[in-house]
Amino acid sequence: MSIVTHRIKEYAALLADAEKTGVGTNPLTSIDPNLSVTEAYHIQLENIQMKVEQGLIIVGKKIGLTSLAMQKLLGVDEPDYGHLLNNMEVANGGTIPIEKVLQPKVEAELAFVLKKDLMGPNITTLDVLQATDYIVPALEIVDSRVKDWKIKLPDTIADNASSGFYVLGDKKAKVDEINLELLGMVLSKNDEIVNTGVGAAALGNPATCVAWLANKLSEFGISLKAGEVILSGALSAAADAKAGDTFSARFAHLGQVSVHF
Amino acid sequence: MATVEYKEIAKYLIAGEEEKREVVKVTENIKPDLSVEEGYLVQQELVKIKLEEGRRIVGPKMGLTSKAKMQQMNVNEPIYGYVFDYMLIENGGRVQLQDMIHPKVEAEIAFVIGEDIEGPNVTAADVLSKTEYVIPALELIDSRYVNFQFTLPDVIADNASTSRVVFGTSFQKPDKFDLDLVGVTLSINGVIKELGAGAAVLGHPAEAIAMLANMLSRKGEKVRKGDVILSGAITSAILLEKGDVVTGRFDGLGEVSFVVTD
User: N- or C-end of chain A: fewer Cβ atoms within 10 A?
Assistant: First the structure.
């Protein structure tokens, strides 16, 4: 056990260093081909704990690998998740200094804010919809501390599910005001459309992703908390970002959210 | 080339459609230098033959309206063809594979035109103000060419691969929506296979109709009141198989479905 813990600390430090120095690490799975998904979550938790000890606050979760395309790409059949910290939020229309990211990509998503806690297992999509306070549009800036995004499933999980920053829109909707499955989205980069998407791109329904998360977290004895922000998964493929780029996503019924690099 | 030759090519393509068999593309040996303009001349002859046979035009349809397809075909303008009355399938109805060659399905928004729209310089806003209703639709494309492979003039000559259309029956006023943000899923047997939003069509489906009106104006033609026009695919096309139950769901516009039989 102590050996495992030592390994986990060592790998967590590799990722923390990459984040600090801005130089991507080699994939952990190239260093340790046997690294398991569970170990990877422990590496993630190790780094999150370090940040919390430094004074950062956990404000929510993000769900990744929610599209069939992404799951196929990584050869997996379930999503993954990461933690959102208070220093990851950027105001709508705000700017992200390019030196704060390594190799950013932008995705448009729906974010959930719950009005009551959800503790798995056996949480259903219906439970999520009943527990949802409101839904708000979001941009997620994913980033990888692994060189050239050469990630396998344990690599991205250990790296906080490749989280970077997130931006929330200003317009909120209650569950009865929108059809989550069919809610359309257009993602533009520098005023050119790069992608269109729809809610169903995230496991058929974004609320189903949140239910998955509640159940997955219960394996670690964690619940989803009222007031937390939950990024439910990308509605379209991610678009590469570089300095000078402005991204903007328009959502049916939910307005617009944008960010500049 | 003389009109009679365009007519011969049109007959060659109609034979493929009616006999449900692939034909070698026109540019392979019949006429390797067929131009886009000539492609439309062939299409014009094809339309004329069908009208003479007593078929009725339901409306034009737009093709190659997605960025991906336009890049693939190396063009900067979409194409159009015509939907005829015999191509319509009832919502919830059956499509027989034996009636077609290698059909694919895609989801689209259709415009029911309330007033004539005459180019040039027609904008998407003009189109919306002259649109009576929008309705959801599934289009079955079925290129008459071997392996669905063709050049741009070939596909234009082949009436833009038009084969069958299933229109939804819930009519909505266009000003109730941001049509570019209408989300769409296309499912086969209950499993979502393709999805997208209206903006996949030239940024906005009404933009496709505006381009159509402007393209038609070059020939002294216009979009007509009463036309029901397919604005272009929101999703990628899916090859159909026997037994498929195909369902398109459109945010706020409802659902369209059909079943594929032998």
Answer: N
